[in-house]
Here is the input.
Amino acid sequence: MTPTKFKFRAYDPQTQKFYYSDKMYTNHYFMFHDDTLNCFGEDYKCSPVEMFAGFLDDDEKEIYEGDIVDFTVFDCFGGDEQYRGYVVFTGQRYQLWNKPDSEYYGDDGGFDLDWVCYQDDTLKVIGNINQNPELIEEGK
Here is the structure.
């Protein structure tokens, strides 16, 4: 069995780019990537470090915390439903939430990302909360 490689990213609002690394230093909010991203200092704003969830979307794109995805929940009675969700790590698992501050989809709670990836092979990353926050508000 090949061990899972941890991967991280952080969004730099000054350059409007993501920086990726397999190393994280100090704590959850500070990261270096080849000395190009330094999130220290009072005047510097950096998004929290987001971790690779271990899954790929339909286009083989890696899914990270903070990604916004479109997905389908299939029903054996033909009542399939389309959703849009935001990837959140809840401390135990990755889930798809309705919006960053609420996990609920009507009567349902958040959907587990591993379950959604297993049952929906058309899951698609359409953006992320750092660059496209309006997408979560436009949700289906």
